């Protein structure tokens, strides 16, 4: 099996078997102000939101995780079937393997998502570093591969820096992102992979014309940590050390959400989002939706209904937060009052938020 595909399988195994979680997303420092007299009926609260011109039943995104190895087909099938059943959004993992390798079983790990989710909002995924090698026609092939409604361009340069075989040439990526955003047939979302997007970078992306920003901040799964485990397995001790050193590097998700939302009107908050209450806090900070990745991985291995159960739990947690803040809709939740404490408050003060 080629290197890119093997790496995808390694990633899933490490996430399932090793400690790759970090704390500090910042949601514990955000407290929504309780409304003792909400004057609304909980079951009539409207949780729908719009993303890329599509209405979702809840502001939940099954974040880009995997694809590119036959072993990942089962996972993506369960996730996509659940997205179809509950009308939430889903992204696939990097499609580089599908674009570069001629392998039908490998390709199925991506195409399965549209096969089982004909109506779901699905988005594709390519790396910013790969845009230096691809033209827009190549990215369109990624769109066509899953009949995507949008395309994510992921930023993962810390991860690449830790990989023994990583691509560490980040020159010219913003120009390529701008070109793809202006020419691609579907909306473009730029997403980090666990280290967050600061306001200044979000402004550059907004100026480049991207349709959405997924902050994927520090505080959840650490890809630096994952690559540290991979480096150790192949005896690359220096990369292993660097991965450990930068394990908790980045802009905390709560901070990154507020900073990006200050300059772009379509922000997805991900990175350490672990509950519907976290999603509610992210929306109060300005996000359009909240995304989760690792929490869906175990349920996906058990089957579609387990994924659906998690989504329904998240929705009830979100609905409860809306009820006790007097928010009858997602738009009202975006205006909900909150208090910022601790480390996150220090960030806000130092960053002028």
Structural overview:
The chain has 353 residues and is of the alpha/beta class. It has one domain: TIM Barrel. 47% of the residues lie in helices and 13% in strands. It has helices at 3-17, 73-86, 96-100, 104-116, 136-146, 157-162, 173-183, 199-207, 223-233, 237-245, 253-261, 276-284, 294-302, 304-323, 330-333, 342-351, and strands at residues 30-32, 49-51, 54-56, 60-62, 89-91, 121-127, 150-155, 188-192, 212-214, 267-270, 289-292, 338-340. The chain has an eight-stranded parallel β-barrel, surrounded by eight helices. Helix 2 links the parallel strand 4 (60-62) and strand 5 (89-91). Helix 2 (73-86) crosses helix 13 and helix 13 (294-302) crosses helix 14. The protein is globular. The mean pLDDT is 94. GO terms for molecular function: FMN binding; isopentenyl-diphosphate delta-isomerase activity; magnesium ion binding; NADPH binding; oxidoreductase activity. It catalyses: isopentenyl diphosphate = dimethylallyl diphosphate.
